[in-house]
Amino acid sequence: MNAHSAKPYVIGLDLGGTNSVFGIVDSRGEIKATAAIKTQGYNTASAYVDAACAALEPIIEQVGGIEQIRAMGIGAPNANYYKGTIENAPNIQWAHNTVVPLADMFSQKLGVPVAMTNDANAAAIGEMTYGVARGMKNFIVLTLGTGVGSGIVLNGQLVYGSDGFAGELGHVIMRRDNGRLCGCGRKGCLETYCSATGVARTAREFLETTDQPSLLRNINPADITSYDVSVAAGQGDALAQQIYEFTGRMLGEACADFAVFASPEAFIFFGGLTKAGELLMEPIRRSYDECVMPVFKGKPQFLVSGLDGASAAVLGASAIGWDIK
Amino acid sequence: MNAHSAKPYVIGLDLGGTNSVFGIVDSRGEIKATAAIKTQGYNTASAYVDAACAALEPIIEQVGGIEQIRAMGIGAPNANYYKGTIENAPNIQWAHNTVVPLADMFSQKLGVPVAMTNDANAAAIGEMTYGVARGMKNFIVLTLGTGVGSGIVLNGQLVYGSDGFAGELGHVIMRRDNGRLCGCGRKGCLETYCSATGVARTAREFLETTDQPSLLRNINPADITSYDVSVAAGQGDALAQQIYEFTGRMLGEACADFAVFASPEAFIFFGGLTKAGELLMEPIRRSYDECVMPVFKGKPQFLVSGLDGASAAVLGASAIGWDIK
To answer: Which pLDDT tens digit goes with each residue over A169-219?
Structure first.
C-alpha cells in the first residue's frame, strides 16, 4: 500500500475575496464533502485559520478523520506559491499590507502538508484537469469575481514568474488618464472596471452622468450589484445593456494586449460575472477582433468555464495538494 | 564521427528591418565569418533570397564549402517558428500583407535544413546562451530597433504561444486615445513611441509643439534620427533629454504591465536605442517603480545587453540552427 492510497483525500480551499469554500476531494476529482466560511470579518489571520479549522472538523470526521487526509491545497489571492504566503492582498482585511504564512499556519493546525497558489492559478489547474482547457498547452483563465484574477498556462505549465506572483492580469492599466482608484493603490487597473464590483461602479457612474431611464434607478445606488445589472439587462433595460457592452469591450481590449504577449489558444472566463452569458461574451469577442494586432485576429477561442464556479477552484486547489512531494 | 562534428558550422541570419546580417558559427559560439545585405529594396522574397545567397557564397567557401554547414537559423520579424514562415511583417516590403515560406526557400537554395523564429526571440536565446541572462529562467528581452520586438522566457523556455507568434510586446497599446499610427494598422502601439523611429517621431512632435530652443532645430525635421537625439542629449540639450525622459517613462510603464503578467527576474534591453545608456535606463527604472503594482516594486533587474548588437542576434539565430533535429 503506497502513501497515496493510504491517505485517499486532499483538502481543497478556494479562498475568495468574499467566501472561503472547502472541499474534501478524492484522487479521481470527486468532492466528498464541503464546507464554507466568510473570508472577511476576522481581524487576524490566526482568527481566520481558527474559524476555518472549526468548519473543517466535521467534514474531516465525515471522511474518517485527519488520518485519511494526505495534504491541503489552497487557492488564494496574492498567494506566493514558492513561500506559501499571502502577501499584501488588497481585498482581504487580515492580509492587507502584511505577509501571512498561511500554508504553515494551516499545516501546524491540521498536521498535514499544505501548498498554496493564486486562486486564479488554482482555477486554471482546475480547467486544465477537469474543464474546457483539457488538452490545451497555452491558455489564459480570467476570473471575474470581487476582483479580476488570472491563471496563465504556457507550454503546458503555469506561469509563476521569478517570485511566484506572475499572472496578476487584473492589474494591467487600462486607463492611464482619470482611471478608477484600485485596491492596489494605483489607478485604472482592469479590475476596477471588469470585476463584479467594477460593474457596479460602472452602473453608478452611468446613472449619475446620464438622465437615461433605467430599472436600476429603482435601487439605492450604493446597493447596486452586478447581479442587479444582469437582471435588468435580461429584461431589456438599455442602460444595463450598455454597462455590459462597456465591460465586455474593455475585456476584449485587454485580451488583445494579452494576445501579443502569449498568443493563447483560448481565453477562459470564470466567476460570477460570466452568468451574464452572451451579454458579456459577445462584446468581448467583437472588441478583441476590432482591437487586436491583425496576426492574432479570430485565432483564440473565448470560452466560459464549463465547471461549476465553486467546484472548479476547489478542485484546482486540491490538485496542488496532490502535487506536494 | 557523429553528424555534429562532421558538419562543424551553422549559418545564423539576423534579419532586421534595415539590415540582414549573416554569421557562420561553430559549436562553441565563435563567429568564423560574416556578411551583410540590406533587408529592404527587393520587390519579392525570391529576389531577397537570391541576394542573400550571393552574399553567403564567398563566406561559405571561406569555411570549406556547404558540406561544412549543418543548418541555418534565422531570426526575423513576424516569423512563425512552427511553420518557418514570415507572415504580414509590416516593416518589410517583400513580406508586407503576405506569407513568405522563407525557411523552405533558403533550405531549397542552400540544401541545408533551416529553422526560423522572431528576431527578438533569437536575441533572447543569444542572451540566455552567451549574455546577461545566463542562468535566468524568467526574463524578457525588449529589442529597441526600427521597431520594438520582444523575446519572453518563462520557466526556462521561450514563449511561442499557440501559433508561434507570441511575444510581440512592441504592439501592446500604450495610448488608447490619439495614439500614433503604427505599421500594424492600429494606433498607440508601444513601438510607435519607443523604437528608434518612435524617438525620431517624438523629436519632431516636441519640436513642432514647443518653442523651446534645441540643437535639433539645426537639422531638417524629416532627417532627424534617434542617434541625433542621443548626441544632442549628450551635449546637454534639454529638449533632447526630455525626449529620452518621455521614451524611458513609457518603457517603464509598459514594463510595469509586463511584470503583472510574467514577474520576470530581469528586463533586458537590446538594440540601437540602448546606446543612450542612463539617459534611457534611468527614467525606465524610475517610471517602472512609480507605475508598478506594489508587490513587483524594486524586484526585476533592468539590464542592457552585454553582447555586441549584431553578434547577439546572429548567435541566437545560430542556436536555433543547432537545435534542428
So the answer is: 999 999 999 999 999 999 999 999 999 999 999 999 999 999 999 999 999
Per-residue pLDDT tens digits for A6-44? 799 999 999 988 999 999 998 778 899 999 999 999 999
With contacts defined as CB-CB under 8 Å, which chain A residues touch B256?
173
Output the CA torsion sign for A226, A231, A234, A240. negative
Q: Which of B293, B297, B301 to mutate to test the interface with A (most CBs of A within 10 A)?
A: B293
Cross-chain CB nearest to B184 (options A138, A162, A293) = A293
Read off the DSSP letter of residue A114.
E
Residue of chain B whose Cα is closest to the Cα of A188: B291
> How many other CB atoms sit within 10 Å of the CB of residue A228?
18
Q: Which residues of chain A have pLDDT under 70?
A: 1-5, 308-310, 325
The answer for residues whose C-beta is within 8 angstroms of residue A85's C-beta and 6 or more apart is: A79, A99, A100, A101, A102, A103, A116
Instruction: Give A139 to chain B, closest Cα distance, Å.
Output: 8
**Dihedrals φ, ψ of A78, to 5°?**
55, 30
Which pLDDT tens digit goes with each residue over B2-39?
Answer: 444 589 999 999 998 899 999 999 877 889 999 999 99
Q: What is the pTM of this model?
A: 0.85
> Residues of B with CB below 8 A from A263's CB?
160-167
With CA atoms as reference, the chain B residue closest to A187 would be B291
Least Cα separation, residue A82 to chain B (angstroms):
13
Q: How many CB atoms lie within 10 A of CB A110?
A: 20
ipTM of model: 0.84
